[in-house]
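B., you asked whether I could sanity-check this one before it goes into the benchmark set. Here's the sequence:
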Amino acid sequence: MTRSKTPATKGEPGLDIFAMAGASISGWLPCEKTGAGPGIRRALPYATETERDAALYLAYHPGVAYLQRADIKASFAAAHRLGCRIPVPFVIPYEFDGRMHDYYIDWVGLTTLGTLFGVEASIELFKRDAQSQAKMAAADRFFTAAGGWFGLFLPDGAVSDLRIANLLRLNAHRPTFSGYDEIAAEIEPLLLRGDPASIREIVARLGDRHGERLVGGAAWRRIALAAAEGRLLAYVL
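And here's what the prediction gave me:
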């Protein structure tokens, strides 16, 4: 059997994300790694919390440069202006029970090195059946041959609920605002000193000059950026 190094797209209908896995879209995750430009966030659709958590984890992974939904129709991507750099639907052919099938993974993107990666977000029990194992093996071979990697994002896995909650909090404070750069320039020395200041202390020191709400928002945004860049050692809500 001959395998192509690029996924088949011609003639593939893709999945209707409004009815994916028998569920409708449950939300949209704002993300700055969608190729829209520095500081510009596009919202990525998800149908389950596990899909959202996987996208959130990838959005704050320092090795990820670009992220998009992989299993949607091109018409859906165009209608919602998702700006997909990688053609959709992203289809991986696999063989099972003597026949060829199409596998639509959840997320696809590019690493900071420019290599391709794919991530499936689903429940662990579903991934144990024979056909699912055939899908996973085909995806692993495809992304490995492309010089990238393929992974599963499973509930109750390596990423704890507390970390996801922290990332959700940081993502909520991620948007920029007028005056951010000026305030961030004053916050930076406080965060980088030997005994870094807490957000409460930063607000107390700079709040009279810029306003407590703006200082607090700027501090949270700066921490969110550091997390996405892989330069944040620890944070506690």
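One thing to flag: The chain is about 35% helix and 20% strand. Otherwise nothing jumped out at me.
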